[in-house]
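Dear Dr. H.,

I hope your travels went smoothly. While you were away I took the liberty of generating a structure for the chain from your last submission, since the lab meeting agenda had it listed for discussion. I wanted you to have the full record in hand beforehand rather than looking at slides cold. The sequence, exactly as received, is reproduced here:
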Amino acid sequence: MLSEELRKELRTRVAHAVTNREAAVDVMKELQRHYGWLTDEAVAEAAELLGLTPLQVEELATFYEMIYRRPVGRRVIHVCDSISCWALGGESLMAHLARQLGIEPGGTTADGMFTLLPCCCLGNCGDAPTLMIGDTLYGLVTPEKADEIVGKEGTAAQ
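The corresponding predicted structure, in token form, is as follows:
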């Protein structure tokens, strides 16, 4: 359930957008921040705020990789699997993280801390391989550097 304060803030954001659909990603991301993922309740709330149908919101939500329609860990690790990252060790980086976390790509650690997801492109090709946790982008990531990053992120999330 949204607080009246958050509902009011989101309505203001929608009102300042050129079209309601323009505000959709912003609204979905804010609801995701509130709930931890975009729940069915959040889809209905977004639809009401945006003046769209729940199906229209669902279509938008499932298009964007960083809108989560299922529960995720407190920290989501996106490992870029674009051609640049793949060519420079992204696949090995993903395998290393999966081993270290004890999960398969797409999985969440038993403690609910991390979810490990491939991502089609993080737009950081010059510093490949790349991963992103939250809104922080990390480039030139080696397995050793990944261990440091994950350790720091896990500590920060607790």
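Two observations you may find useful: The chain is about 50% helix and 10% strand. The chain has a mean pLDDT of 95.

With kind regards,
E. W.
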